[in-house]
Amino acid sequence: MSTTTEKPRGRALPPLITLSEAAAERLRALYAEAEAGKLLRIGIKTKGCSGMAYDLSFVDGPGPNDEVITDRGVTLLVDRKATLYLIGSVMDYEVKPMSRGFVFVNPNEKGRCGCGESFHV
User: Cα 57 vs. chain centroid, distance in angstroms?
Assistant: First the structure.
């Protein structure tokens, strides 16, 4: 009688981050014009009343602590320190009458501050 030991299959993790079509279009435009030759890096920093905030910056290329993500034909970077906070997130681009910018739909968020600047998990 022989037995084999197989590793139990874990459930598949959702993608680290995905882009809405609006976010992909905006990044394509930025990469073609004002931020040509650069990539967007997404990180998390300590800030605001809830404790954490998204940190977006344009950089020349991936660093040693970056995850390279490509979605909808657009490449961006995620700081590895932020990956646990971002798993399953969707980055969108919203245009409102008085503002416009990238926003995140993050299933890991447990709450946000009143002004919407920071969040906690």
Answer: 12
